[in-house]
Amino acid sequence: MARFALFSPTGQDPVQPAQIVLVREHFSIWGFFLPLPYCLWHRNWRFSGLLVLLGTLIGLLPAAGLPDSEAILLGLELLTGLYVGLAAADIRTAALERGGYRMIDVAIAPDEDSALLRYLDQHWAAARQAQASAATPTQPAPTQPPPHPLMAVPVSSGPATVLGLFPEAQR
After folding, report:
1. Which of 31, 40, 48, 130 is the most buried (most CB within 10 A)?
2. How does residue 149 score in pLDDT terms, banded at 50, 70 and 90?
């Protein structure tokens, strides 16, 4: 099962399935191997710009004359890819929120279609329940519930002959 965050445009009805964007929380293998194309594909321009700037700085590293610049270069590239792969869902979520979307729910399902169906079913069930409760007239609650038949036995005021399950010894 995967976890999906559901986003809807701000100010819109959150029940329109065509407007809902689902973001799956997982490690992105594409974000790991191709971080810049991944960010461009998901239209995250700010992070793409940061990746271009970081790539330029990493590309200038061999010009600094360090003895193991190739190993450092490979390590920095792997760390960049690892960061994008791990934080891909968070990066995409931040881009959606900056773009005017708001998170409306979280669903756990095996795939996107099931997550969307779970959300819509839950939302429509709540709407139907609210509609049904508004349609039925409310009855006043009784002030005191009726006594249970076994509890209606009068209590004697004399000395008790039985204490729990053990009868009291006669003196």
Report:
1. 31
2. low
